[in-house]
Amino acid sequence: MTENTLIEQARRFLSALRHCQVLGLSVQDATPQGLTLRLPYSDSIIGNPETGVIHGGAITTLMDTTCGISTVCVLPEFEICPTLDLRIDYMHPAEPNKDVFGFAECYRVTPNVIFTRGYAYQDDPEQPIAHVVGAFMRMGKAVQGGIKLHSEANRGAAQ
Description:
- It holds the Pfam family 4HBT.
- Residues 52-127 form the Thioesterase domain.
- This is PaaI family thioesterase.
- The protein is of the alpha+beta class.
- The protein has one domain (3-158): Hotdog Thioesterase (Thiol Ester Dehydrase, Chain A).
- It contains 4 helices and 8 strands.
- The protein has helices at residues 3-15, 18-23, 56-69, 140-158; strands at 26-31, 34-39, 46-48, 53-54, 83-90, 100-109, 113-121, 130-137.
- It has a 6-stranded antiparallel β-sheet with strand order 1-2-6-7-8-5.
């Protein structure tokens, strides 16, 4: 798969997540080595109005989403992979008035679980705001078809 294809897949995935649209998340890069998303600084995500520091929940959302979407960089076909476990270690607060970037890579893929790791940073990836590790459940392409058929059946029953 080409890098342009990975970027487009990541953008499609991201565009389906309404909370990510509200936060203004965008895909910066997607390669077989990993994914980078950007969280733009805005007044709506400030956690402490006195300092202008971004709320930790916005950074958690950035990193959960980055890890989750990084699965498109390693899987041959799109699969739904919900979060099983996510751990974030905050190193220091993000600086006010600066965007935050999240990078994640998949370091182990099994038939049932994908293991990811990454970090959030602003100017320098060598000075991370936070480190993250996550595990994502593989539901497989066949399960997705079952979900779609099930929701279509429910829609027909409701009419």
